[in-house]
Amino acid sequence: MSRRGLHLRAAWFAAATVLVALLGAWLLFGRGGSPLQTDLLAMLPATERHPLAEQAVQRLAHANGDRMVLLVENADDARAKAAARALGKALAGDKAFASVLAELPAFDLAQFVAPYLAHRFWLLGDDDRAALAQPGYDPAQALARHLNEPFVAGVGVPLADDPFGWLQHWLEQQPWSRSPLLPEDDLLVAHQTDPAGGERTLVLVTAELAGSAYDDAVQRRALAALARAEQAMQHDDPGTTLLRTGAVFYAAAARAGAERDVHLVGWISTGGIALLLLWAFRSPGPLLLAFLSTAVGVAAATTATLLVFGQIHLLTLVFGAALLGEAVDYSIQYLAARANAGARWEPLAGLRQVRPALLLALATSLLGYALLGLVPFPALRQMAVFAMAGMLAACLSVFGLLPALLARPARPVAPSLVRLALALQRAVARLGEGRRGLALLLALVLLAAPGWWLLRHDDDVHLLIAQPPALLAQERAIRDATGLGNGSQFYLVQGASAEQVLQREEALAQRLQALVRDGRLHDWLGLARMAPSQARQRADRALLAPLFADPARLRKMLTDAGLRADAAAAYAAAWPGAPLKFEDWLATPAATPFRYLWMGCGAHGCASLVLPQGQDDVRVLAAAADGLAGVSLVDKPASVSALFGRYRGYASVWLLAAVLLIAPVFGWRYGWRRMPRVLAPPVLGIGLALAALGYLGQPLTLFHWMALMLVLGVGANYAVFLHEGEPHAAHRPGAMYASVLLSAVTALLSFGLLALSSMPALRGFGLTLLLGIGGTALLVPASRPVPADTAP
Fold first, then answer.
1. Where does this chain mainly localize (predicted)?
2. What is the predicted pLDDT for the residue at 684?
3. Among candidates 479, 514, 488, which has minimal Cα distance to 617?
4. Phi and psi for 70 in degrees, rounded to 5?
């Protein structure tokens, strides 16, 4: 190809790169909203056996996802209430929030009770139901007992409307009556005793965001508004503290951690790689061209990821910053070939020289990332697509751009680097020869064996992303103060109709109530408790029927107990009333906070959710649903952890399969007798990395195994680079291994820095790559004969 042809190809490639970059920029910034995904659920795979269960997980996660839950706390009751009112007013005046609830709207308790009066003879509490079923039940004693009960502070039913207290007792079992938060001075207030014995007042404030909690702009506006309001509140009411929870706080913390990681990995690795390339090639030109190739890869990777997925996960963003170290390998090899050629440099000849090595290295890298993409885990698949597109574009840029830009010869690689590489290459190559090689291999195995024995596994999904301890502590404090449960474990109740679902809920409720009596469960939240099945209501009415069979006797019993005659007559005349219909109850204001528990009816029948509170032991919760038709426990974290465990188990098989796939390629290229030595360094690097993880006490996760897959691909690249390039650099012993070391150090500067990530999954990923790539780079010279004793 002529010089003109090289420039024409470079121009076409540059134009295509610009178009790809412009498309990526539009996908990033031109569509409105942020494509950065901070929602943990969006990163997790579908694990539930029934699609309805996955819908339920999403519904629960986002039922309150766009809401801040705040708890204002002060030892002084008046200050706590004043601070809560001020906080509510400050937030309500900010456009970052769609609605804020601090002070309760004026309401009449009688209006709250009124909708249930027409159904009072169909609704019985558990204790009343059990008492009425006893043969010796005495209604007169029940009447006298209720008339002598203390005054009800919460939702109370007038005695004339409920002289026996049956409706009152039923209402006391409802969630709004059992909450530690009670209406007080038009606020929802709880009182707690602190460790010193003093009493503290806690006031609830909730704020609905004007947008998604996972939108960067929404997060920034809302958190800034809250910070201003909190500062003013603490100034005006000293001693006040604010507890907070909500998806917006976790999403903002995850975003901040990702930004820190990107800066740490991106800037430090970029600076380190720049200094390293300046030292090695002794000119800024190769440095700029190496980063140009990397920029092409990153632009293509970002665009491809957005086209395929429409968004970028946090994990992918941080992983992409680390990809710099591998994408630069291809340009380093071409730059090294130019530096080693000296005055004989010719761009096309150099391209022909490095093409086999680059294509073989690209194939092994793509194989490793393709296996990463086989895991049914959205975040890993996205990382795989990002890496494959980036690697392919970076490699193609070497073919399309660099020959036209590197027409003139260059200075040789820094002699000090070549001398260091040659000394190391000779030492390792000699150790790998003959009996010394077998002895070295045996020594490494003996050294690694205790580390392998110490290896253990941990598949907990919570290791995926670090959750700030301060936020977790505040969430626990709010849960303890309000009685709210977490939404990670729940029961999915299914049936052919709403009536069947409610009946199955009631069967589950009997078992859950037994756990409550045993102190093994704090409480539970379910629709059948607030709107019983028609079968349950008919049974309750049947228990009351004998009492109302003789109206005159009933009126006399009531008047003898002290009720006015007209009130007694009105009560007797109200019998039997009407059952409470589920669909009618769903439409009432009282059902508004609980409608998310009803999944509705569709192709899969009808379904509802029941939330256990105060119990995290999956064995206890699963036993409560055992054998109940249509009832299943859904535990998203446990199911994802189990999936991670299964695929972690498969990962070792995949790793072996990858080795078996690479082996025939190396056998074809280097001969079957030579193949084991060429493949040995990455395989040994994997084994030594596993041993080191064992010695460090690092529990293996799926991410460690995926990193080992990349160690195989990257390590195989180094063997390929050395074997393909050594014949062309025979006049400068050590120069080819120097370029391999350059590639390895750039990878360690990027991937290795992931070991400092705030995300536990990426920390393990980075540490494994640091150990595996470092070990492989040092062992690669053992795969070739000792170079001649010629001074470089």
1. membrane
2. 92
3. 488
4. -120, 145
The count of other CB atoms within 10 Å of the CB of residue 574 is 14
Q: What is the distance of C-alpha 226 from the center of its chain?
A: 25
Per DSSP, helices labelled H in 310-433 are 314-322, 324-341, 347-373, 378-400, 402-405, 415-431
Neighbours of 627 (CB within 10 A): 8
Q: Is 439 left (phi over 0), alpha (psi -120 to 50) or beta?
A: alpha
Rounded mean pLDDT for each run of 10 residues along the chain, 792 residues in total: 74 88 81 63 61 72 74 89 91 88 69 80 91 87 78 66 89 78 80 76 88 81 92 88 87 79 76 86 83 86 88 72 71 87 86 87 80 75 87 90 86 88 88 81 90 90 74 81 67 93 94 90 88 94 91 89 88 91 87 85 88 82 91 82 80 83 86 88 93 92 85 86 82 86 85 79 86 91 66 42
Torsion of CA 707, 708, 711, 713, to 10 degrees: -100
Cα–Cα distance measured from residue 676 to residue 278, given in angstroms and rounded to the nearest whole number: 36
- Closest by alpha carbon to 393, among 305, 295, 468, 483? 295
Domains in the chain with CATH codes: 3-34+252-463+640-783 (1.20.1640.10), 66-105+186-245 (3.30.70), 117-135+472-635 (no CATH)
pLDDT attached to residue 791: 43
Q: Can you give the pLDDT at residue 211?
A: 81
Which residue from 335, 291, 282, 278 is spatially nearest to 729, judged by alpha carbons?
335
Instruction: Fill in the DSSP letter of residue 65.
Output: T
What DSSP element (H or E) covers 289?
Answer: helix 284-309
Between CA 34 and CA 130 the distance in angstroms is 57
DSSP letter string, 483-535: -PPPSSEEEEEEESSHHHHHHHHHHHHHHHHHHHHTTS--EEE-HHHHS--HH
Residues 152, 157, 161, 162, CA torsion sign: negative
User: What is the pLDDT, as a whole number, of residue 1?
Assistant: 57
In angstroms, the CA 331 to CA 420 distance is: 22
CA–CA gap between residue 345 and residue 359 (Å, rounded): 21
The pTM assigned to this predicted structure is 0.75
Report DSSP state, residue 343: G
Q: Which pair of tokens denotes residue 347?
A: 């761009």
**What is the separation, in whole angstroms, between the first and last Cα of the chain?**
33
Rounded to an integer, what distance in angstroms lies between the CA atom of residue 635 and that of residue 53? 10
Q: At what angle do helices 139-147 and 551-560 cross, to 10 degrees?
A: 40
Q: Where are the alpha helices (DSSP H) in 575-674?
A: 582-586, 618-625, 636-670
Of the candidates 590, 616, 473, which has an alpha carbon nearest to the alpha carbon of residue 529? 590
Among the residues of 561-617, which ranges form H helices?
565-573, 582-586
